[in-house]
Amino acid sequence: MSENPAASDWATARGEKWRKQLSGMEAMLLPVDEPLIRALRLDAPYRIADIGCGGGGTTLKISRRAVAGSVVHGFDISPALIEAAAVRSDECAFALADVGTAPAPEEPFDRLLSRFGIMFYDDPPSAFANLARWLTPDGRFAFAAWGRPVENPWMSTIREVATEVIDIPPPDPEAPGPFRYAEDGKLLALLDQAGFGDLDMHDWRGTLPIGGGMAPAEAAQFALASFSVGDLLAEAGDEAANEVHRSLTARFSEHQQDGVVRMDACVHIFTGARAA
Ligand SMILES: C[S@@+](CC[C@H](N)C(=O)[O-])C[C@H]1O[C@@H](n2cnc3c(N)ncnc32)[C@H](O)[C@@H]1O
Fold first, then answer.
1. Quick one: average pLDDT of 176-181?
2. Which ligand 1 atom is nearest residue 53's CA?
């Protein structure tokens, strides 16, 4: 599995892996929902789509927060994740789609939102131009993407510790991956060219409970099982994997609060509207 999961990886192995870790992942990312949903301005009954909805945690939350009469859909490229989302509730309609290429629905959406699902498109200019057509002319969006690695030690520490033990090529900031839009100007330019206007970006900063609230050794296990670095380690053998687990446990121990590991995170929240 690549360290830079493209959409096709999510449709297969990466999606399966996310599903296995779903409850821990969703509990860990929960603090991001509130600022993201607030940025979506749910001030009337709307047709809303969560694009790259994963296992549907955020989608279900929106359907509970939306004004009565709203309709909420979730789309994802991973069959495993759509299956997991669909069995959770029938409050929302979940469907399999590559949102970067799927034609605009007959009835477009008033609101589009994504929690970390927009960094993996094979062809970002064309994917965002496609998504602009999914919106009504005055429709709005809110997208969350990670800030710079140095401001997200909860993720960068995993890589840092692993590179002390095995060779890992430096990340390619242009490739699909969590930090693709860490330099926010890159996404703002893409959105502008794609037909969105009234663009803005603000940061949410807070702490995330690793794995949803785990002690250091368990949190290290969760992190290595969840991220691609863990796959590279598995290839390197048990000795390397155990060494990294020990070091990561020690690093996570420095961030324990009330018995669980909580680490700083910075999330860019991009907002805007389909340009008239
Ligand atoms: C980091 S996960 C986030 C999942 C979910 N939004 C959450 O926060 O729990 C990224 C999601 O984007 C989805 N994704 C990536 N590329 C996609 C595409 N082209 N079309 C639809 N979904 C895509 C993945 O399958 C995955 O579920």
1. 95
2. 6
